[in-house]
Design a protein that fits this description.
The chain is mainly β and 387 residues long. The chain is built from three helices and 33 strands.
Length: 387
């Protein structure tokens, strides 16, 4: 290769690498549209990105999710893991305490957060992803716990954690401050009350998952709740819908009416539960819950406050070759807004329901028989009210 060719190759590699580092952003909007481009900024009101056409500014109220499609690089396995009081987690390769803040070293840079938001720190052994000592934690400790490595297990020492340094952890025991070598420590468990997740925006970063009420991003960094600062390159996705969405599976129906094809069947002991609607949650906890509804069933729900839309996907719960037909109807208050017959032609293609529920009080979902057809159950996935 000539000198000029080598230089050209290097320039091309650097250009591709820079593009991979910046990543391509996918902005999913509430109307179902998707905008792709390079992310420039996220603030409290808008998302700004450049596309092939021009710079675009999308109002945050119309954004469901931002996803960064970044090239994944091989990274060193994390050696320290932080668990927040609300259940959020982040991991990295080193940790220090600087005044009232915990600073975590990651492959993308320094991550800093208030110390009072940290419930647990675990220094992981090689190939360990979850600390083994957590299973042995005392049910009701009287103070902070220092987890000391011992042969055959861990020892929990009640004390007050004063500081985390580069080589030692300072603890207060019986009024005396004692330095403990970090190499001997497997973890720290603070005596802090756990809190429920805020129900706000879900932010996925490299090596962690957090929730926040406010999110700001620029090439200078990612800031959550004006207190957690994360390297900009750590961001993987921001899910606004998670904080705005009320899954139907979490709401108790105000009224449930079930009338099987042969009405007398519901009087037989043991069959009542068969015909009743039921929610199926994936064993792994991953993916949306599925509401299984058999005809004829009428479900009425009160619309959560501030809801704007109701959406769901419906498909038959029978083999694709089955001829069973079913009618699905949605009413908002006293007005029918959706009706569709689902048959074999729709096999493998879930029918989408998307309705405006702004200012509404109730929605009524009916899975009805088609005249002359015994029908079948339907699987309803992704059913939720969106604020």
């Amino acid at each position: 290769m000539t000198g000029r060719g080598l230089v050209t190759a290097i320039v091309l590699v650097l250009a591709v690498s820079a593009r991979a580092d910046d990543g391509d952003a996918r902005v999913e909007q509430t109307d179902g549209s998707v905008t792709r481009g390079t992310l420039l900024a996220v603030d409290t009101d808008t998302v700004t990105l450049t596309t092939t056409d021009a710079k675009q500014v999308v109002p945050l109220a119309k954004v469901r999710r931002i996803v960064l499609d970044q090239t994944t690089r091989a990274a060193s396995a994390p050696t320290v893991k932080i668990v927040l009081v609300d259940g959020g987690e982040v991991s990295g390769t080193d940790l220090l305490q600087e005044g009232g803040r915990i600073v975590l070293t990651t492959a993308q840079g320094k991550l800093a957060l208030p110390a009072e938001r940290v419930r647990r720190v675990a220094w992981l052994a090689p190939a360990e992803t979850e600390p083994a000592w957590v299973a042995g934690l005392p049910p009701k400790p009287g103070s902070d716990l220092l987890v000391v490595r011992r042969e055959g297990g861990a020892e929990f020492v009640e004390c007050a954690i004063a500081n985390i340094g580069a080589d030692t952890i300072s603890v207060v025991l019986d009024g005396e401050t004692i330095p403990v070598k970090r190499a001997k420590v497997a973890g720290i468990e603070w005596l802090r009350e756990t809190t429920e997740p805020t129900g706000g925006t879900v932010v996925i970063v490299r090596g962690g998952r957090l929730q926040a009420e406010s999110v700001r991003w620029s090439p200078d960094g990612l800031v959550l709740d004006d207190s957690i600062r994360i390297p900009a390159a750590s961001l993987r996705s921001i899910d606004y819908a998670a904080g705005r969405t009320v899954p139907l599976a979490t709401i108790k129906a105000e009224q449930v009416d079930v009338e099987p094809f042969f009405g007398g069947l519901r009087e037989i002991p043991g069959l009542v539960s068969f015909f009743a609607p039921r929610t199926i949650v994936p064993p792994s906890g991953e993916g949306p819950a599925v509401l299984l509804v058999r005809p004829q069933t009428v479900l009425t729900y009160r619309v959560p406050a501030d809801s704007r839309r109701f959406h769901a996907r419906v498909e038959r719960d029978v083999p694709a070759t089955a001829t069973a037909r079913i009618d699905v109807v949605l009413m908002i208050d006293d007005t029918e807004v959706f009706r569709q017959r689902i048959d074999a032609a729709a096999a493998g293609k879930p029918v989408a329901i998307d309705a405006d529920v702004s200012g509404s009080r109730r929605v009524t979902l009916t899975v009805a028989f088609v005249p002359g057809d015994i029908g079948c159950g339907v699987r309803i996935t992704g059913a939720a009210f969106e604020k």
